[in-house]
Structure formats: structure tokens, C-alpha cells
Amino acid sequence: MASGTCGRQHCRITDQETNGKNSTARSNDFSDPVYKEIAITNGYINRMTRDELRSKLAEFKLETRGVKDVLKKRLKNYYKKQKLMQKEPVNGDSYYDYICVVDFEATCEEGNPPEFIHEIIEFPVVLLNTRTLEIEDTFQQYVKPEMNPKLSNFCISLTGITQDIVDKADTFPQVLQNVIEWMRQRELGTKYSYSMLTDGSWDMSKFLNIQCRISHIKYPSFAKKWINIRKSYGNFYKVPRKQTKLTIMLEQLGMNYDGRPHSGLDDSKNIARIAIRMLQDGCELRVNERMHAGQLMTVSSSAPLEGAPAPQMPRYRN
Questions:
Q1: How far is CA 34 from its chain centroid?
Q2: What span, in angstroms and rounded, lies between the C-alpha atoms of 211 and 186?
Q3: Which is catalytic among the residues 109, 251, 262, 284?
Q4: Of these residues, 37, 105, 122, 289, which one is catalytic?
Q5: Where in the cell is it found (predicted)?
Q6: 211-252 pLDDT tens trace
Q7: Which pairing describes strands 120-129 and 98-101: parallel, antiparallel, or unpaired?
Q8: Mapping DSSP to helix (H, G, I), strand (E, B) and coil, where does residue 47 land?
Q9: Is 88 a catalytic residue?
Q10: DSSP code string of 96-160
Q11: What's the predicted TM-score (pTM) here?
Q12: Of 103, 95, 100, residue with least CA distance to 127
């Protein structure tokens, strides 16, 4: 942020004001004057009105939609990035090349009685290119449930998936094989690094975990770690967990849901739109959850950034 007024406060953010006398401190040393500059600017931004924030964002040709806290975070991150890039250019090769967004649809009953076993009936993947910030490709196949082959009326109404669709579909092991082949064709885990991303923990820790047991196959290694975007969103924009539902996240970012809610593919595309906006706002989405010995675990934000392995079909188990 080279310069700008904060309206009623009559404060100007200028290079001269914030540069300090010495900007040659060591890399990643928080005593570096650049961090003081960033803190001062953050204080100015905190005092700006929503209209002032939008005006400043427009000046930098940044997205102006979203609630006030989102706008503040966007502007702070832009300024921080500019300052740190002046100090030391960022190596753009260290982040995932792609993010695979997955949002399963599963069999369900009204009220979801605790003894009900959910089976995956739609397996979508949305391939997000982290360099271009565009959805590059999508995969979608329906799955034939085996334990409860007849869908409830509630499930049909919620997901839009009809009995006829699942009756004609392949069973889960074949669909998983098709997903893996699709990912291999796109050279994920070989030529390109990637991570899985979901909206919450359940897709992997519950639905995929249960489905693999039903289908007598081991849990696939490529899905053992993932980005839970709800956690990332809450931590990045500093909002409580109850504000991280898909429709609320979209609304806070100034976006509308596009498509049919509870269509796995449409849900995945909308989750990808949130991920794109977060990346644009300066968030480094990274793996924050994993499966270990059949249990859901948290991954520390200080853990090294590692891509998922090349996808392989898991072995069958008794």
C-alpha cells in the first residue's frame, strides 16, 4: 500500500511514514522494522469504515465484496504481502500446484437415526489450479449403495439423486478406481503437487472411512490428509465455527450459492470458489487434518507443507 487516506482519521499510509530508518534486518526476524510498519498499518485499517475499506480495495483493483471483517483481512494481507515481497521475494514454487475439492453425497434418512449407516452415492472432484486460481476440471460419478440400495424419499428430495440414477451406477470400488485413473491422467502426485480439500471433517473421517469398510477396501493413502476449509476459514478471518457453514462463508465473502444445494458437484464448485477467494486474500490453505489408525487427528500449522501421494487403488481387506 503506497499511500492512502483513512478518511475521518486523516491518517495517511505512506512509504515514507512506515519505512523507518533501517530495513535491512535478518529474514524472519520479528524485530525487523517491516513488522512494525505492518502493525502500524493494521491499526489504521482497523479504524477504517466499510466504505473506506471498499474504496481502498478498489484502488488496488482487489475484490470489494464481503463483510467488514473480511474486507479488513483482505486489505491487511495485501499490504503485508507487498511489504514482505519488497524485503524478500517469495518463492512461488513451494505451494501445491492443485487442490482437489471433494464433497460426497451419502444415503440419509430424515433425522439421521444414530444406527443408520451412510453410503456414498455421489463422488465429485473439482480440480482447482492454485496458479491461475481457476477451476480447471471436474469429475463426477454416482455410486450404487449396497447395504441399503433403496434411497429414502428424504434423501432423493435433499440431494436430487434419484433411485434410477444409483441403480444404473457402479459400486464404490469401481468408482474409486475411476477417480484414481482420472487423477493419474492429470499427473497429480507425480508431475504436480496437490492436496485434498473438504468442507468439514466428515467427508473423509466419516463417509469415506465407513464406505471403505463396507466395500472391504483399505482407506486410500491419497485421502489420509486434507484441508478442512471450515477450520482454515475460521482461523484466517477470525470468525467462530458456527459462521463457517458453506452458505454463511459464501455470504460473508459477498457471494451467492451457484447451482443446486446438496448436489455434490455443485457444493464442491462453491467450496472451490471460497478457496479461490481465500487464496486471493492471501491465505495459504494447508493440510490441517488427517486420518491415523482410523481416527481423525489435527495437523499443526507449523508442520511442513507436503503434497498428497500419487493416487493408488487400495488393497482389498477381509
A1: 29
A2: 25
A3: 262
A4: 105
A5: Cytoplasm; Nucleus, Nucleolus
A6: 999 999 999 999 999 999 999 999 999 999 888 999 999 999
A7: antiparallel
A8: coil
A9: no
A10: -SEEEE---EE---TT--TTPPP-EEEEEEEEEETTTTEEEEEEEEEB--SSS-SPPHHHHHHH-
A11: 0.84
A12: 100
